[in-house]
């Protein structure tokens, strides 16, 4: 261990000495170039609070993608960046439109050996998957402990009944087997209240393949389909059984198309204007549920206003003749809460070349504190992804923080075994999958107000949010003005089963 550390130290000193003797231009720029301090000070707690109380207000209706509330929030962001003098980021427009496609279930039927069962009393059908009528003569029952058997099973185009609690890894393995129908067994029947007949939203109207049709069934239906074989698999989770039966499944669906948009503002660079730095945040949230507002103040109103303030700081510098060398793209995504959809749309249809994008600095929740942290450790931010894709990320991030903001940079969520899988859960990941170096800034507030109506602007620590946003600004200033784009020298590593 000590030997390895010594080699790293020697290698680092060689790099420093080489840089000092061969990169005089960088040293001169660092000593006499534009200073960011005055512009960082324009990122203020008071301004962030003003923006956030507007974006998290009842007027914005929770900013759910595809709703009037989201369109109001997009208009607010657009009007503000116009007032800063920033250019539209999508040709002549500040918005990048895309459509959401959402299946809704109109009706569903299930019969076993000619006996009809009742929707929501005996079974439920997923709104996702294809509209279909299946008449099947066999069902394969698999216990969730039968992972070895699942690996070798031929399930393509067949009906499968899963018995037990399904893990993410089991589901991923099952999905690769391409069954036509998946039945899961639930004790939650009969169901009361209003059924949710709408599926997940997506941005792809046409797909290369279709998902299976998913049905949940009661134990009574499971026994009608498989008899004693259901009880046998329930008793032994590692077992696999086949049941002969006459199973009819019928689903009728319709597709709803909802307009949505990302908001993009642009600041042209100087001598490196054909290279780009992206600052991103998502401005959507969960909307209204049964008349209750989900304000989304921290998630991600905090990141939204952070990028607004960073945009103001760079715009002011440019007006004073101290604009960035690289062009800057300020990107506010919608659709994040639906599955990173807005950033997926942007990176699949990039306005600015991703191979010329030096980095994406993404902010998603910087206004609160992790409730597990001790009171004397709250001057922090979780930094995610700086150990991936580029070896330049961490040295830049740490040196900038040491020089300016002196936050504790916590790398908890860089752990490959992170159970929360935070690295994959915000918009930066869509840049990372294309190889663009990213840093994700995050406060770790997964409870008690995460995705709750109680995520309100009065609970935000505005002074800490200001400091975190200033760190992102300073880091971006360095990345926008350094001579070289960030190296892309670490392969993207996606865990098995993702």
The CATH class of the largest domain: Alpha Beta
- Count every beta strand, where a strand is a DSSP E run of 2 or more residues: 18
Q: Which structural class should the secondary elements be placed in?
A: alpha/beta
Q: What is the second-level CATH architecture of the largest domain? A: 3-Layer(aba) Sandwich
Number of helical elements? 14
Secondary-structure map with pairings?
Layout: H1 2-22, H2 24-32, H3 37-40, H4 45-55, H5 68-83, E1 87-88, E2 95-112, E3 115-117, E4 123-125, E5 132-143, H6 147-152, E6 159-163, H7 168-175, E7 181-185, E8 198-202, E9 213-217, H8 219-226, H9 228-235, E10 240-267, E11 272-282, E12 287-289, E13 292-294, H10 297-319, E14 326-333, H11 341-348, E15 357-363, E16 380-384, H12 393-405, E17 408-410, H13 428-432, E18 438-442, H14 462-481
Parallel strand pairs: 5-6, 6-7, 7-9, 11-14, 11-15, 15-18, 16-17
Antiparallel strand pairs: 1-10, 2-3, 2-8, 2-10, 4-9, 5-10, 10-14, 12-13, 16-18
Helix pairs in contact: 4-10, 4-14, 8-9, 10-14, 12-14
GO biological process, one term: proteolysis
Domain Peptidase M28: 263-474
InterPro entries: EF_Hand_1_Ca_BS, M28_fam, Peptidase_M28
Quick recap:
With 498 residues, the protein is α/β, with parallel strands linked by helices. Helices cover 32% and strands 26% of the residues. It folds into two domains: 31-101 and 258-481, Zn peptidases (Aminopeptidase, 3-Layer(aba) Sandwich), CATH 3.40.630; 102-256, 3-Layer(bba) Sandwich (Glucose Oxidase, domain 1).
């Amino acid at each position: 261990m000590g030997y390895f550390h010594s080699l790293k130290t020697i290698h680092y000193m060689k790099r420093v000495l080489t840089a000092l003797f061969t990169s005089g231009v960088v040293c001169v720029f660092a000593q006499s170039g534009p200073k960011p301090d005055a512009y960082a000070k324009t990122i203020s707690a008071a301004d962030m609070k003003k923006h956030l109380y507007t974006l998290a207000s009842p007027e914005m209706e929770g900013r759910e993608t595809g709703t009037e509330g989201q369109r109001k929030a997009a208009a607010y962001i657009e009007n503000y960046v116009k007032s800063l003098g920033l250019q539209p980021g999508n040709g002549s427009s500040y918005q990048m439109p895309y459509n959401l496609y959402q299946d809704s279930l109109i009706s569903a039927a299930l019969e076993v050996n000619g006996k009809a069962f009742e929707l929501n009393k005996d079974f439920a059908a997923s709104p996702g998957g294809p509209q279909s009528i299946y008449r099947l003569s066999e069902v394969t029952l698999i216990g969730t402990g039968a992972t070895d058997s699942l690996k070798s099973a031929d399930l393509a185009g067949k009906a499968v009944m899963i018995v037990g609690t399904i893990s993410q890894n089991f589901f991923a393995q099952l999905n690769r087997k391409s069954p036509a129908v998946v039945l899961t067994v639930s004790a939650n029947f009969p169901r009361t209240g209003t059924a949710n007949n709408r599926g997940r939203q997506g941005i792809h109207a046409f797909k290369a393949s279709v998902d299976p049709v998913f049905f949940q069934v009661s134990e009574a239906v499971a026994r009608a389909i498989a008899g004693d074989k259901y009880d046998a698999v329930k008793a032994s989770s590692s077992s696999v059984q086949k049941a002969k039966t006459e199973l009819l499944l019928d689903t009728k669906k319709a597709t709803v198309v909802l307009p949505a948009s990302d908001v993009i503002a642009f600041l042209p660079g100087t001598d490196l204007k054909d290279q780009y730095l992206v600052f991103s945040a998502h401005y959507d949230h969960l909307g209204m549920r049964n008349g209750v507002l989900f304000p989304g103040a921290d998630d991600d109103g905090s990141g939204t206003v952070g990028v607004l303030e960073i945009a103001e700081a760079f715009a002011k510098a440019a007006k004073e003749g101290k604009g960035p060398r690289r062009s800057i793209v300020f990107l506010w995504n919608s659709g994040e809460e639906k599955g990173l959809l807005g950033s997926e749309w942007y990176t699949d249809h990039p306005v600015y070349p991703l191979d010329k994008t030096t980095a994406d600095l993404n902010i998603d929740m910087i206004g609160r504190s992790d409730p597990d942290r001790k009171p004397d450790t709250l001057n922090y931010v979780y930094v995610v992804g700086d150990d991936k894709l580029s070896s330049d990320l961490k040295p830049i991030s740490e040196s900038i923080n040491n020089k300016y903001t002196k936050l504790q940079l916590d790398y908890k969520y860089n752990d490959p075994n992170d159970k929360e899988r935070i690295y994959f859960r915000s918009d930066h990941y869509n840049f990372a999958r294309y190889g663009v170096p990213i840093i994700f800034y995050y406060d770790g507030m997964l409870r008690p107000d995460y995705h709750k109506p109680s995520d309100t602007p009065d609970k935000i620590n505005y002074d800490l949010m200001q400091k975190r946003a200033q760190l992102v600004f300073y880091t971006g200033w360095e990345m926008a003005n350094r001579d070289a784009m960030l190296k892309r020298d670490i392969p993207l590593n996606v865990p098995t089963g993702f």
